[in-house]
Amino acid sequence: MKLTMKANAKLNLMLDILSTLPNGYHELFMVMQSVDLADEVTVALTDGDKITLTCSDPHLPTDERNLAYKAAVAFFEHFDLPQQGLSIHIEKHIPQAAGLAGGSADAAAVLRALFVLFQKTPDVRTIAALGAKIGSDVPFCALGGLMLAQHTGTLLSFLPALPIGTFVLVTPEHPVSTAAAYAAFDTAGRVRHPDRRGMLESILNGDADGVCARVNNVFEQFIDVPERVQIKAVMRAHGAKASCMSGSGPTVFGVFETDEAAQAAAEALKREFQNVFVCRAAEQGIEII
Fold it and tell me: Does residue 99 share a domain with residue 14?
């Protein structure tokens, strides 16, 4: 038996870092949205007890370093099950190290597939707790939609869906290390924080314009992505209601009121950049294909 899952990427409509915790992690405030740019993850039961992982991207590890592999091991350990033979294949469409949680989405897809294959009830608490053992973005990716993520990113609250528009994503050939991004925050000194309360009030009031006015990412203050200024300028010229970096970058996204405006911006950006995507908000993080 096998399942193929659609593993949706995430965007940070807001990312704020409140403090550095005693354990070295960071206290976060993030408004995250699933989008339908997605990897396809196929999980099949096999004979024996070996987990094998293959990937369309030859640059990604296919052993225990891969979050999808870790997710399978964590599932068996959590439910105290003997390790079952698995074949996992990841067809990559989400750029790597791009601030879009592609690896976390793949891990979340493996978890959700295993819940189905082993007939376990995928309750929110179990998924969140299990995902947090693998990576801080995994619980969100397993649930998805529009959510508020706090503490280290694993304290999640559902938010009402918002018809915010169409997204254009551009991922420059300029990977950013998440660890280096947080280290830059730790030495940055004064940080300008976004309007967190205003963002939540706008979401709860269904005010898409208010949300767009408050889209913000504190990493932009101290992470240098040279192409960011150019990308944002093109997006603004084509009517973007907001543009911002997602996660620790380097992906920059724009929010557009119409599909036509989004497509026009994407065509202009494709003249300079290879990785340009047009996508829409997704109601779930993981979907069965």
Answer: yes
Q: Write out pLDDT tens, residues 137-154.
A: 999 999 999 999 999 998
CATH of the domain at 20: 3.30.230.10
Residue 125 burial by Cβ neighbours in a 10 Å radius (0-12, 13-18, 19+):
exposed
* pTM, full prediction: 0.95
Judgement on whether residues 220 and 118 belong to the same structural domain of the protein: no
Q: How confident is the model at residue 123 (pLDDT cuts 50, 70, 90)?
A: confident
Q: Is 36 a residue of the active site?
A: no
- Are 193 and 8 in contact by the 8 Å Cβ rule? The answer is no
Q: What phi and psi, each to the nearest 5 degrees, are found at residue 287?
A: -130, 140
List the domain range (segments joined by +) for residue 197.
166-280
Q: What is the dihedral of CA 188, 12, 111, 27, to 10 degrees?
A: 40
Q: Is 232 a catalytic residue?
A: no
Look at residue 56 in the predicted model and tell me its pLDDT. 98
pLDDT, tens digit, for every residue of 250-263? Answer: 999 999 999 999 99
- Token pair in block for residue 211: 């949300």
Residue 62 counted as domain residue? yes
Per-residue pLDDT tens digits for 177-196: 888 888 888 888 789 999 99
Catalytic: which of 6, 10, 70, 232? 10
Q: Which of 16, 106, 137, 232 is catalytic?
A: 137
Q: Rounded to whole angstroms, what are the CA distances from 158 to 42, 140, 284?
A: 27, 10, 11
Using CA atoms, how far apart are residues 214 and 234, in angstroms rounded to an integer?
Answer: 20
Residue 271 included in any domain:
yes
